Sequence to fold (281 residues):
Amino acid sequence: MKYNLIIKPKKFDRFTTVPNYIFRHKGVSIGATGLYCWMFSHKSDQEITVEFMINHFKENKSAVRNKLNELIEFGYVHRQRVYENGRIKGYNYTLKSKAKKQELEKLETENLSLEKQPQSNTNSNIYISNTNMSDIVIHFAKLFDKRFQPKTKVQKKKWETILDQLQRIEKYDLREVYKIVKHIREKDFWKTQFLSLPKLRTQDKNGDKWIDRFYAIYKSDNKPQAYFKIKDLIDFKIYYDVDGAEKLGAITKSTKLNEYNLTQILSPSEILDLIKYLKND
Fold:
């Protein structure tokens, strides 16, 4: 599967046509608006990375990342991780013509039950402040044997810092992290190897962070059943028709299938589930 690409509706490919919505959206910074326009100026399938952006603008890495994350938070850009053989290889950036419908919701952490929350959408990650992180640590600690749970103030603070970094730097929703940790800890092998939350931000011998490795395992183990209905499937892919409508396609070892082909094999609900699954990647 290709990665580090810009993906946008094909109708915007021939000209630098930018949807007006972002210009009327109060609260979006000038810098983020400019970055959005610049991304739209490239053709679909343009190879792009954060480093590519940094080399074009005079702002430093932190400033560019902040503007990109702003666009992601508002829903103007969807960033999708791309994996190969269980390892993260890069990201694709899908440009949206409008912001997401819902605003970032406010969470009362005292009423938060991480295990019972619905599946999170990566486009609407919920940020939990450090002032409430100690309550969240308690939920995570219960997933580990008592002897490995944080006991001292220093240990608890370390876990709080890890959770804060996972959502602030790695851009994971903590409810999603909870499900990942719970899933991995239920596996016999990892129950004896994954003994502490700080492991999530350390790297394996290949330089991949364990949170990304575990996320790949979680996603693979929770694939929709439709993945097993397509012969010689390599992967599903979201694409856009000439009108900019979102469609589902598939790549197999011998051919490519568009959404019409898939409707002959999969039900409408299965196609919707697959699109939702891919968007949460």
